[in-house]
Amino acid sequence: xxxxxxxxxxxxxxxxxxxxxxxxxxxxxxxxxxxxxxxxxxxxxxxxxxxxxxxxxxxxxxxxxxxxxxxxxxxxxxxxxxxxxxxxxxxxxxxxxxxxxxxxxxxxxxxxxxxxxxxxxxxxxxxxxxxxxxxxxxxxxxxxxxxxxxxxxxxxxxxxxxxxxxxxx
Length: 169
What we know:
This protein has 169 residues and is an alpha+beta fold. Helices cover 43% and strands 22% of the residues. The protein has 5 helices and 8 strands. The protein has helices spanning 10-18, 22-47, 54-58, 84-89, 130-155, and strands at 5-8, 60-66, 69-75, 94-97, 104-107, 113-116, 118-121, 165-168. A hairpin with a 2-residue loop joins strand 2 and strand 3. Helix 2 packs antiparallel against helix 5. The radius of gyration is 22 Å and the shape is elongated.
């Protein structure tokens, strides 16, 4: 579902930022992008399906600077929650075959230990939590980033433009 988002006041904010030295501008943008990404992260954490909490705990915001461009992203997954994409996108039915070991071993519902060379997995239903967070909170994230920039400009003694507003078509 494609939507157009109009950000009112972004031009004035960008012009005010451009008056600052490049290193300060980058630091302010890094903080602004992190503030906006935190909004998305909070919503994703609120909607992630929780079984043992590892996936929820793996959600984090990271920032990066490459060739002078600053970016922020919300990431999921780590060593414990390596399966994050299976939750978000689901899986198709498939067979699991023992390759490195002689057998697959698991505990059945009745508590008995079962060994087998192959099992059929029925697949997993998708339970998206990242994309819905972005879709639902993108306008709030933009406003939060703008508020951060405005507060930092004020701290630097710069004239502060009006607050951003976001409209969607």
